[in-house]
Amino acid sequence: MAARTKARKRALDLLFEAEARGVNVGDLLAERLDAPVTEAPLNPYTATLVEGVVAHWRDINELLNTYSQGWPVERMPAVDRAILRIGAYEVLYSDEVPDKVAIAEAVALAKDLSTDESPKFVNGLLARLLQVKPTLA
């Protein structure tokens, strides 16, 4: 598994864990950076993703709500919410990877970790965000 793919998975784990535990994801990230719970420390790209999602949290959620066509963020499975937040951050706010790679990586996470319908939903919603990206400046 490529380093960035692993970093995305770890970012997903942090976002999911923070929501499940009802803690601030930024605080959880800081805690894990100070005292890792795994043998390997967090990849710097994991921190970049989580920090980016946190920095754009409100805008990302608003855009996901706007373009998800009848599926408010609160109704989405928690795993899908985390995947979509990471994907939206990479597509809309990051220049680290090409947009299509970010979408493909998000779809792969959905295939591995969510429902049978999730990959298509994640792909469609992130593709829509990519389509409207030029109008969001």
Short description:
It contains seven helices and no strands. The protein has helices at 3-21, 25-34, 44-55, 57-67, 78-93, 99-113, 118-132.
Kindly describe this structure:
- With 137 residues, this protein is an all-alpha fold.
- It has one domain: NusB-like (N-utilizing Substance Protein B Homolog, Chain A, Orthogonal Bundle).
- Helices cover 72% and strands 0% of the residues.
- The chain has seven helices and no strands.
- The protein has helices at 3-21, 25-34, 44-55, 57-67, 78-93, 99-113, 118-132.
- Helix 4 (57-67) packs across helix 5 and helix 5 (78-93) runs parallel beside helix 7 (118-132).
- This is Transcription antitermination protein NusB.
- Pfam families: NusB (PF01029).
- Belongs to the NusB family.
- Keywords: RNA-binding, Transcription, Transcription antitermination, Transcription regulation.
- Involved in transcription antitermination. Required for transcription of ribosomal RNA (rRNA) genes. Binds specifically to the boxA antiterminator sequence of the ribosomal RNA (rrn) operons.
Describe how the helices and strands are arranged.
Elements: H1 3-21, H2 25-34, H3 44-55, H4 57-67, H5 78-93, H6 99-113, H7 118-132
Helix pairs in contact: 1-3, 1-5, 2-3, 3-5, 4-5, 5-6, 5-7, 6-7
* Major sheet attributes: none
Mean pLDDT: 95
CATH top level assignment: Mainly Alpha
N-to-C series of helices and strands: HHHHHHH
Query: Beta-strand level of the residues, as a percent range?
Result: under 5%
Low-confidence stretches: none
Looking at this structure, what is the CATH superfamily? NusB-like
Shape: globular
State the total count of DSSP E strands: 0
Q: Pairing-aware structural class of the strands and helices? A: mainly alpha
The name CATH uses for the topology is N-utilizing Substance Protein B Homolog, Chain A
The CATH architecture is Orthogonal Bundle
Rounded to the nearest angstrom, the distance between the terminal CA atoms is 34 Å
Q: How many discrete domains?
A: 1
Pfam family, one: NusB
Organism: Nostocoides australiense Ben110
Family: Belongs to the NusB family.
Keywords: RNA-binding, Transcription, Transcription antitermination, Transcription regulation
